[in-house]
Amino acid sequence: MAGGRLDGAGDYDDCCRIANRPPFLDPQIDHLRIVHDVTNLPSAGVPRRLGYTLLGDREATGMRSPDDVGIDCLWELRRADWPGYASLA
After folding, report:
1. Which residue ranges form the domains of the chain, and what is each CATH number?
2. pTM (global) more than 0.85
3. Strand order in the sheet with 71-78
4. Helix H segments across the chain?
5. 18-63 per-position pLDDT tens digit
6. What are φ and ψ of residue 78, in 5° steps?
């Protein structure tokens, strides 16, 4: 993260964009998923900007922060929809 900024300046998007590539190098992985609490609107922007599709809401599982309401948004990016897919061919 350039400069350690997580304020919407794009650093987090860049990290996630880079992190999408290694899993898709494995031909057995056909999708990636991201979850975040429904009230965390800045977190919703990351998968949206990276081309993920919102699948819907679900009851939260696992660890939660004190501000979470217990409902997660579930996002998915399929290999064929990934912007870097053509570079794997």
Report:
1. 2-88 (3.40.630.30)
2. no
3. 31-37, 71-78, 53-59
4. 11-25, 41-49
5. 777 888 888 899 999 989 999 988 889 889 988 899 999 999 887 7
6. -85, 145
